[in-house]
Write a structure and sequence with these properties.
Number of strands: 0
Shape: globular
Radius of gyration: 22 Å
Number of domains: 1
Distance between the termini: 30 Å
Number of helices: 15
Strand content: under 5%
């Protein structure tokens, strides 16, 4: 990517920057959702058990992936702030140490995941066809973790410099490749659920090679190597990166762990409810995913101008960012309402029971994309100021304070609600999460907006 394509975070108008920085990552989020749709479409052609298997274990894979991606994602605000401070050598040291951290952790999870997949699925009380199909899918998917980690790493290196277009490019490549690979696996090679996993594995490696090659052909604000410069403490840098990134890792992992637990809790209701939950989430994610990614486009903008001491630009970013999030959330809710019926009809493959469950779930939870969009922007503001611990605790509240207790309570005390108890819990949790985030925002952010940071580089 050429330097001329880079946005000027110091001087371009904030409204223009927010639109231009969020549009690529939002489109990437939509394409990522389409990627998941491709898997769900092909799984639905194989049968309801295959849909349930993919839905059951996907959160486990996403949970491991979220830990690695969270560490990489935390690096965006750290490196962007250093660039804003014009400390390019320190930014290079951080980028190098981040690469080492991400790859080592991903390799550990990949090897461990393959080894413990079977006992873990038994611990989750899967059995019969669900266990067999889930085990095949999980073991193959674990091999994709290192490549996914490298993609997340290089995405961080691009985004910390304001180069957002790569998010769209890599996601579009993934969708096209996944369609081709799934078609070959299912219709040419006549594979089953293993074909779905192999298609994802091959696609991930294609994306990995593409983003690495693209990055190293471009011009950047800092160098990246395999050894941290002797002028800096690699251990201190690693600790700083983990301090910022691990809350995001645990936040993302806890969200996926919550979906995994909910799958376990609703499994006794039958595979059709599990499948409907998965299909509903896929359809909702058409807007939930883009709004989740939207805030990532604001993180480097806040961090860069915060590092440069341009607090007027930071305040303008916060104000317009929240307005933009609300607008996108409203549009997202309308879109989900319009497309829910035809998409659910297609994905349920003539299973009227799954269709009924899915439509009920989408009709209730789909509208919460509005508070979700605002919450995601608030969370990104926390990230931009490297206050990622607050984002973590908000997500802990959503999972352990509302969702899991709510599902358990309705299961034990209101069993007549059946799956509706889960749907209501998901709805309430998204509303309460925004309320808590707004409280944190009111307490935490105004003092930061009224004080310029020291321009003295951080110690590591």
């Amino acid at each position: 990517m050429q330097k001329s394509k880079k946005l000027d975070l110091d001087n371009d108008p904030i409204t223009r920057l927010i639109v231009r920085m969020t549009a690529p990552v939002m489109l990437a989020g939509l394409l990522t959702t389409s990627y998941g749709f491709v898997d769900m479409i092909f799984a639905s052609r194989l049968g309801g058990v295959q849909v349930a298997s993919v839905a059951f274990v996907s959160p486990l894979f996403f949970m491991l992936n979220a830990i690695v991606r969270g560490i990489a994602r935390g690096g965006v605000s750290v490196i962007a702030k250093l660039i804003g401070q014009q400390d390019h050598k320190r930014a290079a040291a951080y980028a190098t140490q981040l690469r080492i951290l991400v790859i080592v952790i991903a390799l550990f999870f990949s090897i461990t995941g393959v080894i413990v997949a079977a006992p873990l699925l038994r611990l989750l009380q899967t059995s019969g066809s669900l266990f067999e199909q889930s085990l095949i899918y999980t073991r193959i998917m674990c091999f994709a973790l290192p490549a996914n980690a490298i993609i997340a790493l290089y995405m961080t290196l691009f985004m910390s410099q304001g180069k957002m277009q790569i998010a769209t490019q890599i996601s579009l490549l993934g969708v096209i490749s996944n369609i081709i690979m799934n078609s070959i696996s299912i219709y040419v090679l006549h594979l089953g659920i293993d074909g779905l996993a192999y298609a994802t594995l091959v696609t991930t490696f294609i994306q990995c090679v593409f983003i690495v090659g693209l990055y190293h052909r471009g011009n950047h604000d800092f160098e990246i190597g395999w050894r941290t410069s002797a002028a800096f403490s690699g251990i201190a840098i690693a600790i700083h990166l983990l301090k910022v990134g691990l809350p995001l890792s645990f936040s993302g992992a806890s969200t996926q762990f919550g979906f995994l637990l909910i799958n376990i809790l609703i499994a006794p209701m039958g595979y059709q409810v599990v499948a409907a939950f998965a299909i509903g989430n896929r359809i909702n994610s058409l807007m939930f995913m883009p709004t989740s990614r939207m805030g990532q486009g604001v993180v480097p903008l806040i961090a860069h101008n915060w590092g440069a001491g341009a607090m007027d630009r930071v305040r303008e970013t916060v104000k317009f960012g929240l307005q933009f999030a609300l607008f996108c959330g409203i549009l997202g809710g309308i879109f989900i309402y319009v497309v829910r019926q035809p998409l659910a009809d297609f994905l349920t493959n003539d299973d009227t029971i799954i269709l009924s469950h899915a439509l009920n779930y989408i009709g209730l939870v789909g509208w919460t994309v509005i508070p979700w969009a605002v919450f995601q922007m608030l969370q990104s503001l926390f990230e931009g100021f490297q206050k990622t611990g607050f984002a973590f605790w908000i997500n802990v509240f959503r999972l352990w304070g509302v969702r899991i207790p709510g599902v358990l309570l309705v299961s034990h005390f209101l069993p007549s609600l059946a799956e509706y108890g889960v749907w209501y819990t998901m709805f309430i949790s998204n509303i309460l999460t925004l309320i808590v985030a707004l409280i944190f925002f009111a307490i935490l952010i105004p003092p930061l907006l009224n004080n310029s940071p020291t321009l003295k580089p951080a110690r590591p």
